[in-house]
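Two quick folds needed for the group meeting slides. Do the first one here.
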Amino acid sequence: MSTAVSRREFLGHSIAGTLVASTAWGAEPLAIPSAGSSSPNDKIRVGFIGVGGMGSSTLNGFLGHADVDVAAICDVYEPNARQARERVEKVRGAVPDVYKDFRHVLDRKDIDAVVVSTPDHWHALPSVLACMAGKDVYCEKPLAYSIDEGKAMVRAARENNRVTQMGTQIHAGENYHRVVEIIRSGGLGKIHLARVWIAMTRERDRAMGKPADTEPPQGLDWDMWLGPAPERPFNTNRFLFNFRWFWDYAGGVLSDMGCHILDLVHWSMQVRAPLTAVSSGQRYALDDNAEVPDTQDVIYEYPGFNVVWSHLAANSHGFEGKGLGIAFYGTEGTLVADYAGYQVHAEKGRMDGFKEPEKTLPRSPGHHREFLDAIKSREPCSCDWQYGHRLTSAVLLGNVALKSGKKVRWDADRELCVDAGGKPDADANRFLGREYRAPWKLPVS
């Protein structure tokens, strides 16, 4: 990113005295409480940044753990913030402080960790600044809007010794652990292809259409919602869940669901990154004002095998009788899995006597619990940002290939697209990041 501020510059300017009028919801005062001492070892004081949609679900998940003290709620849309505050009060009998500017959460020295569940284009900046402010961070998937942002997040976590977790909750489940153990056992023979897919009708069912631009709804700070993204007039289709279908804020179905399903490829096959990616897709089926493909295919080449991603956003008939799934094709047999289970299909006569392997992987106490335990132990989480960045980079590389209109070659060491001779591919690399809209800047070391 060319728009950057240093760690010293950020830490040298307390926001407590610089952001006042922008923080209140109507007449309700939302002043920053004075900094207190750190919480006792048995309680973790957490601030939640983004509490609509997935953020609401994540908040509910953390509320299930008695050692979580919900200290702060932050959202640029007042109804989201109000509902989250009421939920915490109902469950815990205590009222958290409420903000609409995340920087006030980060300025509080009594908060140990933050959970970032904003739209994708808002993942990196609060997360990086939280690390710099000494907070541990749980950030929903995909880790970042762009590969360059993910690099900055990994660097910030490493340089500030922070515990991190990317929100890929299905990773913690027993089913995924068993799939990984079977693939790694070698019982399917040489895996030479993995097919990953999702077919759904949710976009069509939402009947997005082509609504006209309007004024933002009451209680929404639209300029703050846009943040580092380009300035646009408010359109209801750009807001709430539908933000995923606009390039300004996300990467469509691929970035929405890719981390969940491609996780099994990276985990099972123990790979770092694809070597190449080529993609094709358009908005073929749906007539609305969204931008991302409703139909998209990506072919990734990994060392020794291919991965084919396919998604449909206007048809729910996928592969293997599943709307969402993954299939590993080996020389001896095939394993087909989804979130809930898996089946092994042997090639005729080639898996006689096959027995599922013993459990070898350590089990997770739950994705949220992992993060909370790691805050206390300072041990890495199973989906820390280093792992999350590699996985997210592979997902985003599919859209880099789509936007550049060609097969891209990935240099994982330099985290750059390169040509056949190993020189940086400027045409593809321009899609690895973007300029932030003023005054937002992504910090650097």
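Then this one, please, same format:
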Amino acid sequence: MCMKDFKNALAFVMMHEGNYSNHPLDTGGPTNYGISTSFLRAHGINKKANEITYNEAQKLYEMYFWNPFRMSRFNDKGIQTFIFDSAVNCGVGKATEFLQTAVNYLIPIAIDGIIGDKTVKAVNDLCSSIDRRFLIDLLIITRAVHYLNIIKVNSSQRTFLRGWINRLIDLKKQISLLC
């Protein structure tokens, strides 16, 4: 793994996750650096969100949100950042779904929740062609639709929509700078 790639993606995530938060409408509950108490408990860590340090959060992000994708397989640093940020903000399963759904619009692949060799090859092929920009647009749109669907199911989450969309706008800008 290229530690620089992880650190760059982490810097973007941390810009949006910030420090401790306990918004009453946040269905994730209290978070610190974007790590929730429920996430900690689910992974056998006997701490509350407000008790973790930045370094602990960084290690958790690497272990649970970066490493599962084996990011070095993706040639495009912008795609790495998109996948990582999506995993942090929406979950590893959703990040996989966003990637496979967007790719499938351009190159038929299975949307099976497994980032295997076919998915990686399709992503790398698209990113080395004129379709890179279109793939990025599809990724952003796919994630935006996810947010709209959250609000459809639970209208109280509307309060987060502006922040989610601003994050996507920043993400698209960041991705366009990377390759």
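Slide caption for protein two: Strands lie at 31-32, 35-36.
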